Amino acid sequence: MRLRSFFLCLIGFNVLLGSAQKLAPVHLMTDLLEHTERVFMDGYPTSFTLTDLPRMVESYQIAEIHRTHPSFSWQVESDTPATLQTAYRILVASSPDLLIEGKADVWDSGIVESDHSVSVPMEGKTLQSSTTYYWTVKVWDDHGEESSYSPAKAFRTAANMDEKFPRYPLQKDNDRPVSVMRISDTDQVFDFGRAAFGQLEISLWSGTGKDTIIIHLGEAIQDDGHVNRQPGGTIRYTQYRMPLMRGTHTYHLKIRPDGRNTDMKANESSVKPILMPDYVGEVYPFRYCEIENYRPDVTVSDIIRPSVHYLFDDEASSFISSDTVLNKVWDLCKYTICATSFAGVYVDGDRERIPYEADALINQLGHYGVDREYSMARYSVDYLIGYPTWPTEWILQSILMVWYEYLYTGDIQLIQRHYDLLKARTMLSLRQENGLISTKKGQTQEFLSSIGYRGKSIRDIVDWPQSGAFGIGKKEAGEADGYQLTDHITVVNAYHYEALRLVAQMARILGKSTDEKMFAQEAVRVAGQINKLLLSKQTGCYLDGLESEHASLHANMFPLAFGIVPNKCRDSVLDFIHSRGMACSVYGAQFLLEALYEAEDADYALSLMNATHERSWYNMIRVGSTIAMEAWDTRFKNNLDWNHAWGAAPANIIPRKLMGVEPLEPGFRTFRIKPQPGSLHNAEAVVPTIRGNVKVAFQNEPGKSFILDVEIPANSEAQIYLPLLSRKGKLSVDGSLIKGTVDGKFVRITLGSGRHHLQTSL
């Protein structure tokens, strides 16, 4: 006790002297927003900061904090290996000058002995509305070093302190064409290189003031160079007639609202489209702009596409490998996450602009994989908890999304706010006598109200489109591999199991031991019933349902992805999965890849991601899309969008599974680095996390050697897995031979922060 008191006195003495040997914390976040001091006008960043913001705040856009006691996060910086934070001190003040003096008139946390550096809740005074505050933090580490205080971070509270989750204003970037082609005396086509949700500004000249031009905007182009007027599906094309004034003028093309995504009539789930805010205006997804009936040359400097997206740092993540196809797939999927963020909420592309859980889950994981940004994900998950959609599995997915948000951010708010609703969404109330759940029985109004559903009923989906939908014949398999939707289906019950398992963990976090025990027991019971009733003893594969003799890809990949398959049946389930190929939609591909990496079947998983056949991400590139598509091709969904983030699974699968970077403890306090390269010779990636970038690079000679270089952020540690080449193989870490722990096909070791060089060899 005396030693602890001496330690605290020593820290206090250093505070008074202002000593600082250690780098100050960086990347400060308030309620998971890092750039709270930025001020925008009409979507564009301004030179203003919150400190010098004019009185007319309503003329500008800022990210406002809605909580009276927000949370704070920061990254620990250190030049010393294996650094862990041991204490912190946070100061919150109404003026930056007070912080310079080391004073805090709102909250002084005092010196807190803790390694917490993410989502630390503020205590002290209640924050007032429409007020700018400032905060700073300093830390101590396990090497006995004390940092200086970080530069002050400003944030502003909202006029309505309603406890809502904050998010950034939408942002505009001015894109210029990468090329221009004259295709006739009066027609020119401009290519912006990639599609984006944007608008158009163009400078043109007219000698008479009587000229009228036609502007064509579209996502696709014809063989003759014209913008494709009939691209098929819901691939976008539109045209505008624009009369010109005499002289040279800059024209702003006002995008017409589309009734398909701006009609506020709710869909069958009573969910309405997300409208664009007034300060941005309507947008349209296009890559090409064709100007018709205009003879003078228009140069690339005469035309601008203001593209709209959520705040995005393109340099936050990277991936490059020895496989050129895989590199292109990564670029496609990473850009998709940025481009489809145009609404500030995860929506299902441009046709409906409605949030759906399945789209949002893949979008959420992809966003975590490519940028250190969490606020849009959290806002979208919270929105969908309040406005669920009709598919059974997608309502169950809300539990998965809340859990992922907690793992990646360390923020417990979503679990605390919605725990009772999430308990209901495990759908235990639909359990039948056989121990499985069924949506064909027991859907009372009481049940629908308990899960927060506003429509008339929910129903199972498995995948989409199914047989008989969108012109697919009833005898054709569709994207659900001919799944037979019986009363008790395997996919729904696999989701039910995963929901129960995760809610048990949520109960543990909240200290609800009775709930934890009950949900954990229910999860074990459901897994047992799935394996007893739905796993064929003859084939060792799962049937579609209790009343079915048909086995599909989906009935097998979901139990494998969720860890339900008994060890003795893993090979038979994997063999069946191999036999089906990519017999699923771009949405289903997320869980197919999850299942393969769960089974450590990296070679086959890689062969699907770098494939070039019709059911591949490369096919999206080949047909001309620059954003992930809603389906593999129009042949599989005749009304597909060319701007759908649920087709961007590799944006999360590559960093999470191929490179193997995943959180084990909330907020990446402990995480895993488990590369599964398969036949890939080399790759390197930067994976952003809330504690800092994780860098992973490997050189792989299958069966001979595996070299791994990693960089682990301060205040965290990693469980690192390397392929086990043989039981007598050697493992070296930073030049020294080490005896790791054999874990299946891998050898495992735990390392602290810093750079490390590892190698396994025969």
Structure description:
The protein is α+β, with helices and mostly antiparallel strands and 762 residues long. The protein folds into 4 domains: 2-157, Immunoglobulins (Immunoglobulin-like, Sandwich); 171-309, Galactose-binding domain-like (Jelly Rolls); 391-580, Glycosyltransferase (Alpha/alpha barrel); 667-761, Maltose phosphorylase, domain 3, CATH 2.60.420. It has 17 helices and 30 strands. Strand 27 and strand 28 (736-737) form a beta hairpin. Helix 7 (392-409) runs parallel beside helix 10. The longest helix has 21 residues, at 513-533. The chain is globular, with a radius of gyration of 27 Å.
Q: What is the approximate shape? A: globular
Low-pLDDT residue intervals, each spanning 5 or more residues? 1-20
Write down the CATH class of the largest domain.
Answer: Mainly Alpha
Q: How many β strands by DSSP?
A: 30
Helix/sheet category = alpha+beta
* CATH fold-level topology of the largest domain: Glycosyltransferase
Largest sheet: 10 strands, mixed
Q: What is the number of domains?
A: 4
Distance between the termini: 51 Å
Q: What is the radius of gyration computed over CA atoms, rounded to a whole number of angstroms?
A: 27 Å
How many helices does DSSP assign? 17
**Which second-level CATH architecture of the largest domain applies?**
Alpha/alpha barrel
Helicity, as a percent range: 25-40%
**Chain-averaged pLDDT:** 94
Q: How much of the polypeptide forms β-strand, as a percent range?
A: 15-25%
Q: What's this, in brief?
A:
The chain has 17 helices and 30 strands. Strand 24 and strand 25 (694-701) form a beta hairpin.
